[in-house]
Amino acid sequence: RNLLDMDTFSKSDPVVVLFVQVSGSSEWKEFGRTEVIDNTLNPDFVRKFVLDYYFEEKQNLRFDVPPGSHSALFGTQDFLGQAFVALGEVIGSQRGRLERPLTGVPGKRCGTILLLAEELSNCRDIVTMQLCANKLDKKDFFGKSDPFLVFYRSNEDGTFTICHKTEVVKNTLNPVWQPFTIPVRALCNGDYDRTVKIDVYDWDRDGSHDFIGEFATSYRELSRAQSQFTVYEVLNPRKKCKKKKYVNSGTVTLLSFSVESEFTFVDYIRGGTQLNFTVAIDFTASNGLPSQPTSLHYASPYQLSAYALALKAVGEIIQDYDSDKLFPAYGFGAKVPPDGKISHQFPLNNNVENPSCAGIEGVLESYLQSLRTVQLYGPTNFAPVINQVAGTAAQVTDGSQYHVLLIITDGVISDMLQTKEAIVTASALPMSIIIVGVGPAEFEAMEELDGDEVRLSSRGRYAERDIVQFVPFRDYVDDSGNQVLSMARLAKDVLAEIPEQLLSYMKTRDIKPRRADPE
Known about the structure:
Radius of gyration: 30 Å
Largest sheet: 7 strands, mixed
Structural class: alpha+beta
Oligomer: single chain
Distance between the termini: 17 Å
């Protein structure tokens, strides 16, 4: 909109060149160009850029606007402006629509660039169906058959790939299988007329299952069962060849078939779901005196501490999905002024009424200020700050708000039982917890909280969802000392589970994304 006019006899002939920053470096690579639009200062480009989107990465984009295709290597005299933006900022903005001023021509207003992002729909439907069979062939000598079904989708080259197995129904020739759910793309790769082959087997304990018969269908044919039962004849080709009077080996009836769309993380973000980011930092004495270079809190003039690095790595990505950019920030395990009482959830900005800091830089500023005013002490208690954020998350559970708590700590947790109880309670709320361990300590207890291997439980209650992600920061430190690369690696791992955790909350509560308002 309102581009600079660089042509003498007519208006400019603009084109937009997209550059993508290589992760963890300062290098930019050209990704693609729009078409050139002649003689206009308000071009509306048709060509789209298709990018892979990763929530857990900072995907920096640069849009350069030279005045035409001839400007492959354009000089500043021809330059119409440029804009820098992270892909997450576009997706996190209202309706996936972001307007940015163009800059780069000293002393001149360069106009604006309007960016629109939409997710390419790649057959996100999920099917639930139920089948039963009637008068299947008897295969077991001492009893009836133990039937199960195997579904195959056909490939382009005529081969078949297994895509689903039902459970075994024991000792019957008239089984009714449980309803099951399968993505449409797994069933037919999104091609509604592609063959779906279904084999019927009799289960044997030794794995040498007996083939009863087969039938073929397609997604389109299966979907007709939404209005009527569909009956398929089960045929055994070998029997058919041998026996003249062979009719079939039984029938399979499709009892029900329903389709619903699977929503994505981007659907919820576009529908207005906000990610609220809260930080909790370990101020226990085991970190060492902040003024000493050996301390994990020591910030030299040349590089950030491990705490500050972890905070920036995670916060700079999440902030793109939070419209007000105000982040509550707490410390735990310190004696705080004026009376020197130990606190496990003191606001870093010293404002109990409003612990929010403006942007990640505001959090860093308050963190460094707190290091100068509190006394590092102990113990290492997580439960108070988890309960604090859980209390906030419990106030709005309609899917419009989702909370991410980042805890950065150096060591062994002191209130393990209370923390497990707090996490189990929080697992029913719209929140996730990221724990980053800094320093050389052993973090075995944190692995238990992570719940990837064994679902976390407390006093007989199991966590409703896995909401904790733990990583030791030392695993991500770049050997060459490249802090940007270390931060990118850390963020990629700790944030990778957030979209799935958000989706699992929405799904268990049957919360659909809000429709983005029309233009």
